[in-house]
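Standup notes, structure subgroup. Blocker cleared on the PRP input:
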Amino acid sequence: MIEHDKRADSNTLTIALSKGRILEQTLPLLQAAGLNPSENVQTTRKLMVDGDFHGQPIRFLIIRAADVCTYVEQGAADLGIAGRDSLLEYRPHVYEPLDLKIGRCRLCVCGPKALVEAGLPERGSHIRVATKYDKLASEYFLTQGVQAEIIHLYGSMELAPLVGMAERIVDLVETGGTLKANGLIEETTLCHISSRLIVNPASFATSKQKVQAIITSLRQAVDQSDNSKG
Ligand code: PRP
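Run returned:
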């Protein structure tokens, strides 16, 4: 039997957090905003953790980055922290009130050095593209007049060109280390990415004050963090 905060009720707000790299950068912001999980969300195996926001109970879900949009759009979470990449790809019906300025990276088209230097094949020709961003990749290659066969992968996209499965990848680049280690280079930057606070529109309407208090606290935390970086 899982013990939950006895103060929590159906009015308790739920925030979906992205697992993985972003979580490490999310935690200091949550703490500065007064959003405190009752246990270490980086190490717990629990997927739902109680917490406190200035004396009010609150709940955290710890889920895969790509699923945050779904939980918030469905109303299973009232708020969430999602990468702009997921928002652009899945286009959920959610509000996006705040750029958290963490998880900064870029979405790029990349490929093996020799292929990138040779340029995209001529208009009307065919190319295989490994990505988890099917829509964004298709749309980009459409604008280039190249027919992209999308090979959907869930991670480690950089491997696909190495084993001859794709001529290009569309993926996130942060330091460029993974590309370099696998002999790939960037061809084009499609957009710059950071993590955003997202809100379910119905939750915003029904719990406006509580949601607004969280937005305001997080906005202050982002501003403080920005100022301290100079
Ligand atoms: C992301 C991304 C790249 C890598 C880029 O993958 O998909 O593979 O990070 O980072 P870098 O430019 O700093 O090397 P992640 O490690 O999150 O895992 P994934 O491949 O399973 O998505």
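Discussed briefly. The chain has nine helices and twelve strands.
Next: hand off to the docking folks.
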